[in-house]
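Exercise 7b. Backbone tokens:
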């Protein structure tokens, strides 16, 4: 469980935690990250989880593939 800071929104704090995990290698490239996992681990609402996921995408740390999920980047090149 995280000790929430009052000066930052929860979604931003979640982004920081996951960013550290990605940078440390705990979450390797290609690892699936789900909104459900964020909700369960951090005990937050769906909207908070979605904001965190959007923040991770905005930072280029994860990419989302429709009908597959969100994964730790970098996004692989499409093979045609």
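Sequence design result:
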């Amino acid at each position: 469980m995280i000790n929430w800071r009052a000066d930052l929104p929860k979604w931003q704090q979640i982004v920081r935690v996951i960013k550290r995990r990605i940078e440390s290698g705990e979450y390797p490239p290609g690892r699936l990250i789900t909104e459900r996992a964020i909700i369960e681990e951090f005990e937050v609402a769906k909207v908070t989880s979605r904001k965190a996921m959007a923040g991770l995408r905005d930072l280029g740390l994860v990419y989302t593939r429709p009908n597959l999920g969100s994964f730790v980047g970098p996004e692989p090149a499409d093979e045609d």
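Instructor comment: The domain at 10-72 is CATH 1.10.10.10 (Arc Repressor Mutant, subunit A). The beta strands are 32-33, 62-65, 69-72.
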